[in-house]
Amino acid sequence: MSAKLASIFNEMMNGGDVRTAYQNLEKWYRSMPSELRSLKQTEAESLFRRVGITFAVYGEGGDPERLIPFDMFPRVLTAEEWRKLDKGIRQRAAALNAFLCDVYGRREIIRAGRIPEHLVTNNEAYEKAAIGFMPPRGVFSHIVGVDLVRTGPDQFYVLEDNCRTPSGVSYMLQNREIMMRMFPQLFMENRIAPVDGYANALKKTLASVAPKKCMAEPNIVILTPGQFNSAYYEHSFLADLMGVELVEGQDLFVEGDFVWMKTTEGPKKVDVIYRRIDDSFLDPLCFKPESMLGVPGLMNVYRSGGVTICSAPGAGVADDKAIYTYVPEMIRFYLGEEPVLENVPTWQCAKKDDCKYVLEHLPELVVKEVHGSGGYGMLVGPKADKSTIEAFAAKIRDKPDNYIAQPTLALSACPTFVEEGIAPRHVDLRPYCLVGESIELVPGGLTRVALTEGSLVVNSSQGGGVKDTWVLAE
Amino acid sequence: MLSRTAEHLYWMARYLERAETTARLLEVGARNALLPDASGGYRNDWEAVLQAKSTLEEFRDKYGEPNQRNIETWLFFDADNPSSVLSCINAARENARVVRTALTSPVWDAINTAFQELKQHQRTERSKLDMTDLTEWTVRNCHLVRGCVLATQLRNDGYEFMGLGNSLERADNTARLIDVKYYVLLPSLSYVGSGLDQSQWALLLQSMTAQRAFNWTYSGEITAQKIAHLLILNRKFPRSLLSCVQWSCDHLDNLAALYQTGTRAQEVAHRLLEDLDRATVDDIFDEGLHEFLARFMARNAGLATTVQDVYLNGIPA
């Protein structure tokens, strides 16, 4: 495996020529007076602030309500590019769910020797309480967020899967709203596939997995950790769009065979819980006894088919970074198909040979914690100085199982507004795939952009911004 | 509706009303301080203002002797004072933020904008801020939010809970505003109606934007009896205790109709209304204005507790 930095793929420019998909946008940019640009940028910010689209950061000082920087230059994918992504993402979402049903059921993939048993059963995310239970329609992960990066005209890689509760979809929707409000003419000049069907599709998906015991129209709720959670805005936004209640643990209680919510008219039965809290906080009787966020007795009701929890407890074992390596294998095993989308080549430090290679090549690799997220606890070799690398090497030697490494990919770059005009900045892409009675995928996703020149870290917690993502209509 | 949602809406409305009352009290105090007193100096009724907000002790602990500047800070900007304008607007906005999906966007926008502007005021040098502007700003923004609620909110249970928060808090606050009078006069009833305190009664009217209402409603001399009648027993005046209790009854009746079941809260409210309806100004002055107000505030608080038990705790009582 070569870990060299290849040349960077520019999504708008092909040498000196503007790619067809970006031609209208390039004209739009050229004809925009710079005063208008800064005016629009201010307008966008005040729209975000007024609507209250903020993410909350508590305990770090400063303003706890922050804006994610919004870049007005849209990112464009052609219909043809999307066709391939669409196929690959649906395929992945299906395989991941098949895998989850299997590892909590007959464990055929393990018995077939296609994935090592210890990676599954010793995994922290492998939920003993879920063994032997088949959720409605065999779906564990109802919302699969697939993180993609691009390195060439036809080369997309899956960086990771998010099978628990991927966040960010509110930005996909709001970025589009704000662009349509500020630049309606762009949407007349370009035929852009709409994304606003997402909320409806999500509601349909959640309703389709209501438990068998539910005889009437299912009562769906979103379970949030509360207003201090960084994604609280998103939770309330989705609840509003779907017209369902946004509840906290304290609003729910278990009595008899069901979960109830406390209303001004007394208890009302709950059928489907789209939870945005982690497994370990769901039920203090089953997991962390000190959890104040969950509902005592919830798991009993769940296991007896009185309520559906989305994503199902235990879904996290499928998106673990150590399991990630085996997703192409899952696709072959369960679907009998070849993977449409490739994985990034990955070294597992748990394997002796891999670990040796990683330690020798740290300056050119990206090393991640197996269970980490949000861009924390990772090493970007080419950007790190010697002492940082040495310190990290010690951590790897100490706990090799905890780390995986990948080549530093030359992430594609998209034109992004900067002080002097526009400049290419690295981007990734997260589409949101819905799995219920059917698999649904809205054409689009969240494009995150590393606003600092040369930076490859797109996480909002570390200076990343977001862009509207266009999929051109066929 | 989720009990917690109802609770947030209810408290959002309560805090907004409270912010307005604190601002009105500040205005009363500041105007009072412009009046000459018998000893040749100026009146200092700030203690009365603090007492009316039941916050004199906390103030003393933090600032010592009351002076105007400190009291203005305490009542407007001090986050340590739970009923300062700042604390109330922050709390109203936080309650709104949690249940913003239950609010229309004009309502959210009005609250959120007030919150953002207040942060600006907070950053401005005090010497550049005019207290009267700030109290006016507060009253105006509270009007704006209530207006947006009235004009845009769906008439569902959430609307009734906001209304309830508003009416219960206003009943309490009107009683407190009248009570400032008591502290200024001290318990001696012989002062009531004397020429000395005429200007203070007039000020009380002013603090509730009620001078015109008074003149349209009553003829002849301004007397304590007439003013007490307007502020306590007159159904036409929207801040009077009777109006506020009527208003609470209406919201509870609407809820009972909506949920198709009457409640204890409804009974408690209607009993309070009947008693108030039977009372006369003479009865009130015989009992003692302060005693009457204290008794009223306790019953009103009892009603609020019943509302909490019946609707907001989520388990039917």
Could you give the topology of this structure?
The complex is a heterodimer of chains A (474) and B (317).
Chain A: E1 13-14, E2 17-18, H1 23-30, H2 34-51, E3 55-56, E4 65-66, E5 70-77, H3 79-103, H4 108-111, H5 117-121, E6 143-150, E7 156-162, H6 169-182, H7 184-189, H8 198-208, E8 220-223, H9 232-242, E9 245-247, E10 252-255, E11 258-263, E12 266-270, E13 272-275, H10 279-282, H11 298-303, E14 308-310, H12 321-324, H13 327-335, E15 342-343, E16 347-348, H14 352-360, E17 365-369, E18 379-380, H15 386-398, E19 403-407, E20 413-418, E21 421-430, E22 432-435, E23 439-441, E24 446-450, E25 464-471
Parallel strand pairs in A: 5-25, 7-15, 8-9, 8-13, 13-14
Antiparallel strand pairs in A: 1-2, 3-4, 6-7, 6-22, 10-11, 11-12, 16-19, 17-18, 17-19, 20-21, 21-24, 22-23, 24-25
Helix pairs in contact in A: 3-13
Chain B: H1 3-32, H2 46-52, H3 56-63, H4 68-77, H5 85-98, H6 105-123, H7 131-152, H8 157-185, H9 198-207, H10 211-217, H11 224-233, H12 241-259, H13 264-278, H14 281-287, H15 289-312
Helix pairs in contact in B: 1-4, 1-5, 1-7, 1-8, 1-9, 2-8, 5-6, 6-7, 8-12, 8-15, 12-13, 13-15, 14-15
